[in-house]
Amino acid sequence: MAPEDRRAALIAATIPLLREHGTAVSTRQIAEAAGVAEGTIFGVFPDKASLLRAALMSAFDPQPAIDAMASIGTRAELRERLREAVAMLRAGMRANANLFTAPGELMARDAEFRERMMRGRQRMAAGLAALMAPDRHRLRRSPEDAAHLLLMLIAVSAHRGFGHDGGFGDVDDDEIVSMLLDGLLIRHSPDPSTGSAP
User: Fold this and answer.
1) What topology is assigned to 3-59 in CATH?
2) What residues contact residue 82 under an 8 Å CB cut-off, 6+ apart?
3) Residue range 51-99, pLDDT digits in tens
């Protein structure tokens, strides 16, 4: 197996173990999951920390989410587009829920990792903004602002720490989209009590 293929295989084997055990996962567990001798890891990575860092970068790679958002297109109605994006982004965040403390540890001492995480968030926000762009004229705020608000709502609903204590444990995809759009859409229908548009 070529070194790059071996590296990719080790990273792929490490990600689910990180999700289950966090950074306490052992190189022995990783080697067993990858079907290689433990020493093989150190022929590809200088140490365990380097492998964990590479696995975290892969787990938090925004490109699959960005590609999925681009595939949604803009033909469907805005609410339907965002519902699809929210379902996909929440699934990804939930899969990585146990990993969110590890990037905090790395970001404290790894400027490159911190920069990649920040760029990733910006790129995901840009993907969401592109989904909203055709309806820019209907929004009180720019698609870019709305995208950042939506990402915050998704993150709050996906993180376990906000579940019962924060009151977001039972929120579903439709409700997240509704929280965003029903507070941002410019309403043109008259108010029944006054007869005028809000």
Assistant:
1) Arc Repressor Mutant, subunit A (1.10.10)
2) 128, 131, 132, 150, 177, 180, 181
3) 999 999 999 999 999 999 999 999 999 999 999 999 999 999 888 877 8
Give the burial class of 130: count Cβ atoms within 10 A of its Cβ; 0-12 exposed, 13-18 middle, 19 or more buried: middle
Cα diameter, the chain = 76
Which of these CATH numbers, 2.60.120, 1.10.357, 2.40.50, 1.10.10, describes 63-184?
1.10.357
Q: What is the pTM of this model?
A: 0.77
